[in-house]
From TrEMBL:
Keyword Oxidoreductase among record annotations: yes
PANTHER family: 5-KETO-D-GLUCONATE 5-REDUCTASE, ALCOHOL DEHYDROGENASE, PUTATIVE (AFU_ORTHOLOGUE AFUA_3G03445)-RELATED
Keywords: Oxidoreductase
Family, similarity comment: Belongs to the short-chain dehydrogenases/reductases (SDR) family.
The organism's place on the tree of life at top rank: Bacteria
Keyword set includes Oxidoreductase: yes
Organism placement in taxonomy: Bacteria, Pseudomonadati, Pseudomonadota, Alphaproteobacteria, Acetobacterales
Protein's name according to its UniProt entry: SDR family NAD(P)-dependent oxidoreductase
One term of GO molecular function: oxidoreductase activity
Length: 249
């Protein structure tokens, strides 16, 4: 029996480490050809090595900075030219930004947080939407953070960027709800032992936190052709929807 994602093409951002890397490996194990993006070419090569070591056919590596709008805008046309399709988008990349009082944030801190956590999501939606809509089972998953919904002192930059991203993603999900074949969801992994978490909580004992691989399966489940979830905020431990939004079958 062929793997469930055989012949599909998946784009994974932030794939050089952490949850993005774990998701890419899991998707590849199910037969997807993964196109991996991140700023670090070396990190992407390490992810590709893991895929190949596990028996996968290897990935397409696309090093880029999410602040580079022109590079992001070119992803859709490039995928169309090379593969003629895109079936899965997992946007796992993010930046912590500065943990600082709001009045102390610099112009650069604010601009980068919005560029990476919000504007990049909009550009990815815009450039990949035609291909995802054309897929027989298009799937898009955007990783988010609880600070988008629960503002906390010093986390304003991350929260603002992710809140904007959530609004964009759920608005898009509502716009394509009648399409039926394309499913769009948010995924909040919670506290996970990643480098971003270590940057935010440098004194924390991370030994008790779940590893990225522990939450990757929940992301991948949203990418499978049989998944009917749409316009939801999903976590590893719950099936509840985004507050005040109905589940769309």
């Amino acid at each position: 029996m062929p793997p469930p994602l055989q012949d599909s093409v998946a784009l994974v951002t932030g794939a050089s480490r952490g949850i993005g890397r774990a998701v890419a490996c899991a998707l590849a194990a199910l037969g997807a050809h993964c196109v991996l993006t991140a700023r670090s070419p070396g990190g992407l090569e390490e992810t590709d090595d893991l895929v190949r070591t596990a028996g996968g056919a290897g990935c397409t590596l696309l090093p880029l900075d999410l602040e580079d709008g022109a590079a992001l805008d070119g992803i859709g046309p490039s995928l169309a030219s090379r593969f003629g399709r895109l079936d899965i988008l997992v946007h796992a990349a993010a930046t912590l930004g500065a943990l600082t009082p709001v009045p102390h944030a610099t112009d650069r801190d604010f601009a980068r947080s919005l560029a990476v956590n919000a504007t990049a999501s909009w550009r990815l939606i815009r450039t990949t939407s035609p291909l995802l809509l054309a897929s027989p089972a298009g799937r898009a998953v955007f990783l988010t953070d609880a600070h988008a919904r629960s503002p906390v002192a010093y986390w304003g930059l991350l929260g603002a960027g992710k809140a904007a991203m959530e609004n964009l993603v759920l608005s898009w999900a509502d716009e394509v709800a009648s399409h039926r074949r394309l499913r769009v969801n948010l995924f909040d992994p919670g506290a996970v032992a990643t480098r971003l978490r270590a940057q935010a909580m440098p004194g924390e004992d991370a030994s008790g936190l779940p590893r990225p691989e522990a939450v990757a399966d929940a992301v991948v489940a949203l990418c499978l052709p049989g998944s009917a979830r749409h316009a939801d905020l999903v976590t590893p431990a719950t099936t509840s929807t985004h507050p005040d939004r109905p589940t769309r079958a």
